Amino acid sequence: MYPRARQHGLLVDRVGDETIVFDVERKEAHSLNRIASIVWQHSDGAHSLSEIASVLTRELDVQANESIVLYALDKLSSVHLLEGDETTELGHSTTRRDVMKRVAAVGVAAIGLPAVLTMTAPTPAMAASGGDTLPVDPGPD
């Protein structure tokens, strides 16, 4: 399998080791940690899972394997950052427990797992509604 990261309709910025991706179509911002960033950046349709795992091993100085890459791809796919339907190609959703079982012996757990945090940008209608605001306490009389 040669995964391909989505390139269109995205604004991308790197902040330290993380990559911030704003999906213009879905109005969602995604923060990819270092592992997820590396996997996403090397998902160009030319690198296999084992090649991406080798890049992780080289850049993080920790023995990584295809399980970590599959887990990252599953996370990236769930927020629509891969071309096509990569989850169909994966065959199943890779769970954190599955990954931990496979990588515990090689020490990847020490650096953490791929993480993608998502925040939806409020629409103008949401901002204008003002219906869910809490009353301000005027303080002591």
List keywords for this structure.
141 residues; alpha+beta; Arc Repressor Mutant, subunit A; 6 helices; 4 strands; 16% strand; elongated
Indicate the CATH architecture: Orthogonal Bundle
Round the mean pLDDT to the nearest integer and report it.
80
Structural class: alpha+beta
Radius of gyration (Å)? 19 Å
CATH class: Mainly Alpha
Give unreliable regions as ranges: none
Shape: elongated
Major sheet summary line: 4 strands, antiparallel
Percent of residues in helices comes to 25-40%
**Overall number of structural domains:** 1
Q: How many alpha or pi helices?
A: 6
CATH topology: Arc Repressor Mutant, subunit A
User: Number of DSSP strands?
Assistant: 4
The proportion of strand residues reads: 15-25%
Ends apart, CA distance between termini? 68 Å
Strand order of the largest sheet: 1-2-3-4
Order of helix and strand elements from N to C terminus: EEEHHHHHEH
Task: Explain what this protein looks like in three dimensions.
The chain is of the alpha+beta class and 141 residues long. It has one domain: Arc Repressor Mutant, subunit A, CATH 1.10.10. Helix content is 37%, strand content 16%. It has helices at residues 34-41, 49-60, 66-78, 86-90, 96-103, 124-129, and strands at residues 10-15, 18-23, 28-32, 116-120. The chain has a four-stranded antiparallel β-sheet with strand order 1-2-3-4. A hairpin with a 2-residue loop joins β1 and β2 (18-23). α1 packs across α3. The N and C termini lie far apart (68 Å).
